[in-house]
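Section 5: illustrative case.
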């Protein structure tokens, strides 16, 4: 093979590599998203245990909506890493079980409230090519949830027999998501996803030294509708 042919092959190979790099550089590596987050709880809890507690006293969490925020980093054409958070919502807990505790209404009453911070880190696989307008994706990850502003309501205090302090332990658990991305135009995209995670906590309720406990699994499932800007 002549030197001229070798030179031509080298130039062609360099052009292909440079073209691939340039194409990769044209795809934004960062995405910020903002949207609505609807949380559907599937609460499972041990009956409240402790002094003066009749059998069957339980609780459940109310569904809620909050603001969704996320940062997504493109790793490869098919792999993204997403850090999803939400504005800390006020979660309300209702009594479940007996209609009355003595002369105090219980079942269906809002007995406590708390705010939570729950960042979730996902590794996601995106199907189809980056030129596709629609790209479904799936992901797995880990959720961390911590609770603050824990309050017993007037109804909760009445059911407990006096002012009550609440403690909820932090939770770390697996999470999974499935969704679809739609390229609107330019740097703008729309997203819809449905996620599940494992959130468990130990509840301690202290009413003047009288302590009651329960183990709660919230089982949240989250529907997210959002818009994103890539850069």
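Designed sequence:
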């Amino acid at each position: 093979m002549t030197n001229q042919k070798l030179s031509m092959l080298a130039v062609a190979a360099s052009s292909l590599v440079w073209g691939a790099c340039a194409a990769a550089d044209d795809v934004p590596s960062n995405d910020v998203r903002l949207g609505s987050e609807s949380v559907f709880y599937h609460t499972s809890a041990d009956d409240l245990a402790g002094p003066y507690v009749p059998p069957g006293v339980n609780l459940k969490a109310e569904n809620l909506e909050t603001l969704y925020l996320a940062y997504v980093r493109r790793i490869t054409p098919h792999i993204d890493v997403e850090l999803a958070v939400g504005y800390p919502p006020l979660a309300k807990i209702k009594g479940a079980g007996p209609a009355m505790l003595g002369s105090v209404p219980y079942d269906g009453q809002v007995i406590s409230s708390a705010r939570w911070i729950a960042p979730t880190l996902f590794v996601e696989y995106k199907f189809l090519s980056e030129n596709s307008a629609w790209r479904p994706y799936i992901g797995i990850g880990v959720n961390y949830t911590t609770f603050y502003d824990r309050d017993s309501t007037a109804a909760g205090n009445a059911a407990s027999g006096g002012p009550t302090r609440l403690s909820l332990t932090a939770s770390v658990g697996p999470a999974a998501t499935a969704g679809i991305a739609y390229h609107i135009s330019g740097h703008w995209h729309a997203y819809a996803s449905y996620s599940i995670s494992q959130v468990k906590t130990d509840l301690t309720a202290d009413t003047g030294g009288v302590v009651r406990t329960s183990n709660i699994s919230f089982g949240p499932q989250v529907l997210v509708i959002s818009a994103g800007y890539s850069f």
